[in-house]
Amino acid sequence: MRTKKAEPSTVGEILNEEFLKPMNMSLCKLAELTGMSYSRIRKIIIHNDPISIKEALLLAEVFHTDPDFWINLQNVRHDWHQKCN
């Protein structure tokens, strides 16, 4: 019997739940810190838009993470969807 693994979290889910909420940071503040537009950040969080390498670099700078952290989150989700289809 094959067990189906749970769908991986999106970049937006991780960004919101693991970074913004614990830091009590608004989307407006993140936009200010990254130079990304509020609407772009909202699309990443609400609509699960994929991020670019430049956006991964900006998030990494603000949250003191590695850009690969953000890209890997996205790639894991993409790979999961490829395997499920």
From TrEMBL:
<keyword id="KW-0238">DNA-binding</keyword>
<dbReference type="InterPro" id="IPR001387">
    <property type="entry name" value="Cro/C1-type_HTH"/>
</dbReference>
<dbReference type="InterPro" id="IPR010982">
    <property type="entry name" value="Lambda_DNA-bd_dom_sf"/>
</dbReference>
<dbReference type="InterPro" id="IPR013430">
    <property type="entry name" value="Toxin_antidote_HigA"/>
</dbReference>
<dbReference type="Pfam" id="PF01381">
    <property type="entry name" value="HTH_3"/>
</dbReference>
<dbReference type="GO" id="GO:0003677">
    <property type="term" value="F:DNA binding"/>
</dbReference>
<protein>
    <submittedName>
        <fullName>HigA family addiction module antidote protein</fullName>
    </submittedName>
</protein>
<feature type="domain" description="HTH cro/C1-type">
    <location>
        <begin position="24"/>
        <end position="70"/>
    </location>
</feature>
